[in-house]
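Morning, I've got a small favour to ask if you have a moment. The fold is given in discrete form, as structure tokens running alongside the sequence. I'd be grateful if you could look everything over and explain what you see. No rush at all, and the record is pasted right below.
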Amino acid sequence: MTTQSATVPSPAPKRPVFYLAMAAVFAIIAISGFTPRYLLPVATHRFDGSPLVHVHAILFFGWMVLFAWQSGLVRHRRIEAHRAWGMAGISLATGMVFTAIALVVRGLDAAHAAGNFDRLRLPAIAPLSQIALFAVFVAAAVASVRRPETHRCCSLLRTCCRPP
């Protein structure tokens, strides 16, 4: 007597939803944090910041959207689209770094003009350190595109420490 066994193809393993969920959490934190300080004043025409602040805000909002989009592409196994959008991420991150540095320098110039430079010079180290750390994690994520788990971790970390 012969026994026949049928092989049932197993479904493709589901990708963890962790990174997509974290992107949503980061977006909620960013929106709730910047609503009282930026979004509401802009909506009510009470914001008196420079155009550079608006460019900075657009870039940072774009980063949160791109991170969620990229996480969704990977979750749905659209890796080629994820890679193509990765080039936009590199450009966006570069703009974020430069605008963040420009805003810190502008704040130090304003502090110097107001006579508060000595008091504000030391606290400027914090945002500059965040900017540097963000840039390091962006570079590490780009360098590790062939190692998916490392790439995912660096992507998550760069969003955690994005500059102010």
